[in-house]
């Protein structure tokens, strides 16, 4: 005989949680461990999905609701004894005795006896036509009685009561009433305003709601005829479903002398052990943390905790989030977190739309940073998002009302499900995280909810997470799609980021070399400027040298911005927007000499338009002689660092913003990146330089500087987010170094920092971790890489002006010095303008 | 050397020196008052010539565009709005409403000739 005895486990109860315990035990057990499992069930059926019980009336059969067929138990060597509840426990002998007299010895006994309907002691509850709503048998009785009934009522306006009321409607009763003792519906989940909204919705669907009604008596002879209330009124009904709450089935535990609570429930510790350490209680019969958890998710978690304990793991059952979302007769109802917390301990935002039957409430922490809880009635589409925001303590957007109203800018508040951290719990019933789902979808190709239900059981419990699971499927597929689209083009089967690493590792400096090594074919207008940008971001060599001129995009090709009619505009750098009168005069003289239209730009510099291609080198020669440098207005690179005048002149200024802006602009000038970069420095909190609309913006404080990143003006304005507070100049520069290089290395092509951040998983918190806290350990490398680029900076126009080979390419014709004779100008307000498009 | 076969009788015009056109790039020559874009597609070892005017907005800029290939077909992208034209047929590859003229190119003793 084998010297290692099997561990004998008896499970009393074959409900959802009892079943889940078996399933998890099988999944977890180690090969050397052998369990001998016996399950006793009171009901005649194997465990079924009680959460979706009302679907029985919508056409689902008992088999449809079954969690596992009888064969499953047999195949897994589980002895299943149905219609045979455990009636006694001998704790001395460690054995149980069943109703049919089976005696089974155990090493561990799991009580999963669940709960029964709580039936208040109202005179007349024993009459025919009075039912509870708990089992398939109950439903069969209700169904057959409803066939001969006209008016039905449900006693209890809670979650289950409303489910039962829906059942009465489904069964075709002429009148369906809900009678609730409390002054509102679903008193445990929603507040009065929410209840009003729900009541309106339910009444519009034909349900009659009676609140604050205390039932004194159930009238009639053998059969129910009506309900008499404390206020003297009478409601005539010929059937009644009692759904006034649940009562834990703790009678067996009481008989065995285990500790139970006076108001019901088997008392358990954090390991779900009863007062007898070999006996556990899980599900609705257990009283953990002084409460009965009447939801499926905590029940499953309890099963998990016990399985962990029996298989040598160590896990505790912690107070469980009781957030719920359900659809009641077509109306969404959800509550999460602390739904009822009131001001002044929180800030409450309410939205009510009576016309549409929608009520929403969110409770936000006093500092406005985190979500504490909330209620949704009529439209719970944001539930999963809000729940995750609450659970992960995600920092809220500046206008928390966006959470329930949606951003009025047209985009969803927050960055969506893909911004959740990998350990965000998506399916709380089965403890499936976002990371696990992404893995199942991405690595194993489970692209449908059904496939995921099979592979990792997500969505198989309460089903509340299914919309979120769908979002994650879409998100992962989208990422894969984006990834595919992100392959540069038909010539390079790599993403920009991959290509950057390859080019860097191999030290490639020309387009031809990159195409030979990693591409195929002849290249095109997509991959050429992309590679050009990579080469510039890696080595910062003159973009027109070697074979690089013809791979530059339209503007970079001639270091100027091509304008209507084929002429170019010229923008010299004016760091921080500070310029001497002498330099202003030079710009005026050059513009006059070459007949250029002049305009002040949005970035505090001066743009000169209408230059012929052939004039560009001469124009720049004069500008460079006067001390100007290229402004890179043509490049995907640093444009301007705008500044307000700051403490040197302004009576409010607290720091010298102009000097810092000049320092920053000089540091990063010529830095090429996935898209253009704009910056600004403000000298005080009044923010005259509009730094919060820039890719990186700096605002002076009394103590130093605040650094903001990833803002944007343009077509999709977005406020920059705070990266660091009250830092000194050196720290500020170091953080910008890291931030810019991290952006350059990881952003998709032609993606501004704002979009880059929006797509980044974890958002600003992740960016902060990487840039400020160096969570990836790459800060030194980033600083080093950018310093190398800064060290080799040269004004590319100066190089062109001084290099005859480069300079000679700046002609319209290769066979004559003539200018393009087709260029035409019109005049306006004393200056020229480009002729209109034909 | 003929890069394009042609049945029409053409007149060869001397356009420029081969060094005037950057490798894998283009340049514009003025020939009898007509602007011709010439491309030295050195990666393919081929020369091409087209109209310099993009028919989309009548801009004289095709020679400043980037060249490349699409499924093996050589093409040029106008720098203004990235209309791309086949260097072989002149047909616009991303907007069938447009087409540019193409011309045969002959390279002889480091000089580039265009057949018009």
From TrEMBL, chain A:
Nitrite/sulphite reductase 4Fe-4S domain: which residues? 635-771
Q: Which PROSITE patterns match?
A: NIR_SIR
Annotated BFD-like [2Fe-2S]-binding domain residues: 425-474
Where [4Fe-4S] cluster binds, per the record, is at 644, 650, 684, 688
- Enumerate the spans annotated as NADH-rubredoxin oxidoreductase C-terminal domain: 323-393
Query: What EC number(s) would the UniProt record show?
Result: 1.7.1.15
**Any one GO molecular-function label of the UniProt entry:** 4 iron, 4 sulfur cluster binding
Q: Name one Pfam family in it.
A: Fer2_BFD
Look up the record and name the pathway of this protein: Nitrogen metabolism; nitrate reduction (assimilation)
Q: Which residues are recorded as binding siroheme?
A: 688
* Stretches assigned to the Nitrite/Sulfite reductase ferredoxin-like domain: 563-624
Q: Which PANTHER family match?
A: NITRITE REDUCTASE (NADH) LARGE SUBUNIT
**What family does this belong to?**
Belongs to the nitrite and sulfite reductase 4Fe-4S domain family.
Q: What is this protein called?
A: Nitrite reductase large subunit
Q: Which organism encodes this protein?
A: Dyadobacter luticola
Automatic annotation (TrEMBL), chain B:
**Tell me, which GO biological process terms does this entry list?**
nitrate assimilation
Q: Which PROSITE patterns match?
A: NIRD, RIESKE
The record's annotation in InterPro entries points to: NasD-like, Rieske-like_NirD, Rieske_2Fe-2S, Rieske_2Fe-2S_sf
Q: Which Pfam families has this protein been placed in?
A: Rieske_2
Which keywords does this chain's UniProt record carry?
2Fe-2S, Heme, Iron, Iron-sulfur, Metal-binding, Nitrate assimilation, Oxidoreductase
Which stretches make up the Rieske domain? Answer: 13-114
* GO molecular function list: 2 iron, 2 sulfur cluster binding; metal ion binding; nitrite reductase [NAD(P)H] activity
Q: Which residues form the signal peptide?
A: none
Q: Which CDD domains match?
A: Rieske_NirD
Name the PANTHER family for this protein.
Answer: NITRITE REDUCTASE (NADH) LARGE SUBUNIT (PTHR43809)
Name of the protein in question: Nitrite reductase small subunit NirD
Organism the protein comes from:
Dyadobacter luticola
